[in-house]
Structure formats: C-alpha cells, structure tokens
Amino acid sequence: MEELGKISVWSVDVAGLHLVFNLTTIYMTLSVMGILILFAFLATRNKGIVPNTFQVIAEIFVDAFWKLTRDALDEDMAKTYFPMICAMFMFLLLCNWIGILPFMDEPTKDLNTTLGLGIMGFFIAHYAGIRTKGFKGYVKEYFQPIFFMMPLNVIGEIAKVVSISFRLYGNIMGGSIIILVVSYLVYGLIIPPFLYAFFGLFVGTVQAFVFTMLTLVYISVQVK
Amino acid sequence: MAWEQIEWVKAASGLGAGLSVGFAAIGAAIGEGYAAGKANQTLSYRPGVSGEILKTMLVGQAVAETAGIFGLVIAMLMLFSPAAGKPVLTGWAYLGAGLSMGLSAIGCGIGAGLPAGSACTGIGRQPRASGQLTTLMLIGAGVAQSTAIYGFLIALLLLFKSLPEAMNWVAACTLLGAGFAMGFGGIGPGIGEGIAAQNAVTSIARNPENTGLMTRTMLVGQAVAESTGIYSLVIALLLVLST
C-alpha cells in the first residue's frame, strides 16, 4: 500500500530555484497528445463521401460538440471557441481512459494537469468577456449588487477554477485509489476489471464531459 | 498527555476517517436513491423510453456519488499515511479534515441527486429533449457539488500542512474550527443549488425552447446561493493558514 499517492519526480536546482517535474504525468500527457495527433491524421487522410472508421468517430465528436457550442454561444462566437471545446473534450477523454491500460497512468490524476486546464479556461472566459463587453462593462460586473461585494465576487470567480479542477482531479484520483485498495484486498482477482470499467470508462467520460461543459458555460456566462 | 504521541495520531486518523466517509455516505446515498425513485416513478407511466431513463439515472447517480468518493479518498489518505514522527497537532488536523469533508458532502450528495431525479421525470414527459436535459442536469449537478470540492480542498490542506511540534490548544481548536466552518457551511449551498438545478431541469422539460435563458438564470441563482459556502471557504482558509 506504500505506493498510494506517490508519483515519480525529477527535481533539479537551477539558479537557486528548486524545480520539480512529475515525470509520469509528462510522459502520459505526451502519449495522449501523440495518440490524438495520430488519430487526427488518420481521420483526415482520405476524406470522402464514404468515410473510413476514424473519420466517422471524428465526425461524431465534431457534430455533437458543434451543436452544444452553438446552443451555448452565438453562431459567430461558437466558430471561434468550438475547436478548443472539442479538443479539450477529446484530450480529457483520452486522459481519463488511458489508465485502463496496464503500466499507464492518467495524467488527470495529477492536480497540475487539471489546474492548468482550469486556469486556461478561466483566462479564456475572461478574455471573451472583456472582448464582448469592453473593459468598463467587464469591471462593472464585479460591483454588481452593491460596490462592497467586489472582493467576494473576485473570490467567487477564483473559486470556480478551484471547483472545476478539483472535481476532475478528485474523481480520477479517487477512482484509482479505490481500484488500488480493492485490488490489494482481493489479490487482483475478478473484481478489478469491473472497477476499471466503471471508474475509468464511465466516470471518466462523465467527468470529461462535465469539465468541458462547465468551461463552455463559464465562457457563455461571461459573454452574455 | 496520557497517550503516547503516535497512538493519539493513529487514533485521530481512525476517527477522522470514520467521520469523513460516514457523513459523506449519507448525502450521496440519499441523492442516488432519490434519482432511482424518480426513475421508477417515470417508468410506471412511460415504459417506452426505459433505456434512455436508465442511462440518465446512472449518469446522474455517478455524478451524485462524487461527494462520497471524495470522502473515501480523504479517509484512505488518513488511514494509510504513516503516524510515526508526526506532531500531536496532526491528530487535530485529521479530525478537522474529516469534519470538513464529511459534513460538506452531505448537502452536495443530496443536491446532486435532485436534478438527476427531475431529469428522469423530464425525459418521461419530453423524450425528444433528452440531450438538453442530460446536459443541463450534468451542469447543474456539477455546480451543486462545488462546496463539497471546497471541503475536499480544506481537508487536503489540513492533511498536508506542516504543523509546529509543540501541542497548543489554540492551534488545535483552530484546526478543528476550520473543519466545522467548511463542513457546516457546505451543507446548505449544496442542497440549495440542487433545488435550483432541479427546477431548471423540470422547466426545460416543459419548454425546451428556452434552454439558454434558463441555463443562465440557473447559474446566476446558483452563484448567489453558493456565496455563503464561499464565506465559509474564506474563513476556513484563514483558520488553516493562521496556525
């Protein structure tokens, strides 16, 4: 049980700074990116009226998320933000699923990955808000009910980043801890594959979708 | 202290783990049961869409279970971290972490179950809008869980904080108080945001054309309902960081 919550790290001291790199997370993120690029290459290689398998899968993703993005934002703005939303879902889905393979870890099991994506979504949403409402209108939002509510509104915005990234991290981390503990208790017999199917495939899909939709909704709240 | 230091830390980790997973189980189970009950009720008059309803119920239950899983994670982290060489205050931090995670998960489990139940009813009423209903249910339930996530954050901070070696009652009660602040502060917002999400899902089942307007209104209302949870988060953070 000693491996609970341990990750392999590589730390260096450069110019007085103590830098820590989570190697497993970096390898796994790069593998996920590689698989996605390969998938995109295969899906667009022989585009045609009669699609190949990869093109069909890619079209399902694009179609479903185009509808969701168009419903949440305007047609014009949806064209700008749709590629990010769709790519984010595919990345997170693969991140959450890759843990079911032996010797692979989910990059989303590391808080740095989810917090990074959450902060990215935060900046994109606020950039979109400033662009549509202008800087004055954007700042005015913070003084909304009464002027002294400003600090709490700011904390509320930052708390959104915390809640969105900790939700994904906690679910994936929790799933992997449960799998580890149960596998230890039953000596890896019979039960773990079902747990992988539930926590890896099912919860992973739901949480990837929730993360993507919340990012989209935060953008749409800022621009409307 | 009558006990040895290491025994107290071990005892507190057991107590904290019990508080965390025990309280967290209450809310998640009620929420999931509510969703299952509503699904059964709907199936009694609309058996034709049983597949769709079963799928929505399971997805909603998986989201409602998040709070329970968080409680389990905190409990496991407490039980399996070595107790030797830890200061006495760690035991109090464990108790605070258990209270923070367990109590805040009660409200959020119930709150995340409410929209799942009404999404099942809504699909029975309006099977064509099932995509919109599932999406809104996930967003609403996800936002309703934020206070459980703040509780999870406070619990993690308490678990991994480096504490002073000497025992000190002020610091001990501050750590416990942070757990109470976030734990009790998380119950109300979880249920309240769940009610907002539940009614938004019900209204979309009646009038699917207004999805955009209702989603925005629901989110604004939930943000206001969450403000008390954010006050608790601020106080809990101040308490944790001041020791």
Structural class label of chain B: mainly alpha
Q: Order of helices and strands of chain B, N to C?
A: HHHHHHHHH
pLDDT averaged over residues of chain B: 89
Return residue spans of chain B where pLDDT drops below 50 for at least 5 consecutive residues: none
Helix content class of chain B: over 70%
> How does the overall form of chain B come out from the CA principal axes?
elongated
Number of strands of chain B: 0
Shape, principal axes of CA atoms of chain A: globular
Distance N terminus to C terminus of chain B? 21 Å
Q: Given the structure, what is the number of helices of chain B?
A: 9
Q: Main sheet of chain B?
A: none
How would you describe this protein?
The complex is a heterodimer of chains A (224) and B (243). With 224 residues, chain A is mainly alpha-helical. Chain A has one domain (9-223). Chain A is built from 6 helices and 2 strands, in the order ββαααααα. Chain A has a two-stranded antiparallel ribbon. The N and C termini of chain A lie far apart (50 Å). The model of chain A has no long low-confidence stretch (mean pLDDT 85). Chain B is mostly helical and 243 residues long. Chain B has a single domain, classed as Four Helix Bundle (Hemerythrin (Met), subunit A) (Up-down Bundle). Chain B contains 9 helices and no strands. Chain B is elongated, with a radius of gyration of 20 Å. The two termini of chain B are 21 Å apart. Classes of the chains: A mainly alpha (224), B mainly alpha (243).
Provide a short characterization of the protein structure.
Chain A has 224 residues and is mainly α. Chain A is built from 6 helices and 2 strands; from the N terminus they run E-E-H-H-H-H-H-H.
